[in-house]
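[agent] plan:
  1. take the single chain provided in the ticket
  2. run structure prediction with default settings
  3. attach structure tokens to the ticket
  4. add a short note for the reviewer (M.T.)
[agent] executing step 1
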Amino acid sequence: MSEPAGTLAAGVAPAGRLRRAGGLGSAGRGRGAGGAVAWGGKTMRLPALGTLCRYQVEGRPGGGIEAVVERLERNRFLPLEEAVEEEERTGWITVEHLLDTAFRPEKVQLGPYLVFALRRDRRRVPAALLRAHLRMEELAHQSVAGRPFGARQRREVKARLRDELIRKVLPAAASWPVVWRPRERLLWFGTLAAKANELFAALFERTFELKLSPLGPAALARRLGGEAPELAARLAALRPAVLHAPAPAEPAPAPALAGVA
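[agent] step 2 finished; step 3 output follows
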């Protein structure tokens, strides 16, 4: 992918890293309020980022921006709607808003960066509500049949009620931005939540057929320092540092008085 000349301001620095000026952080964990990001006269608005998880991408996408857009389109987010058998669904959206899945090169590419987002919808019937409906059905059945549900009948009624109720539940939607610099094989994902990162990595690898490796402090140091043997030895010798005062010792128990039980 070509990298057009330009000045990247308010969020993404042209040196291959992200800085904390427009809602993006460079250290794998940053805070910001989001904002417009400009490159070469083009502006794109990025959502607010509370935290960032950094990855190294094992390879680069082939076929140019058109191929990237096509892959995103094939794996775009599709609403749950009447799919009662599904409680969760993920897919790609643009950073414009939750409902935008109309991918075009100008919506995805910002200078040397590719910008899009992962959306996850999840819906579940509250357990207490399901139990209440099941109890109502069981009481109605017992008043007619004179006995409660058997185990098999209870399972069948519970499954039917769950399918009926889930159609009335609006899904809880969440999205997290993705900023990817293919030439540097670096990628930032906008949350540290373990489950969201699992979903993201699986969909990314399925979409682009490229592997992701988490880029923590040690991996980043190796990346920046190359294959120098002295660097590897120093990294292996590092130990966690305690950055707080030790907890005060517990006072010794008072001695028991003679003759007192």
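[agent] step 4 note for reviewer: The two ends are 83 Å apart (CA to CA).
[agent] ticket updated
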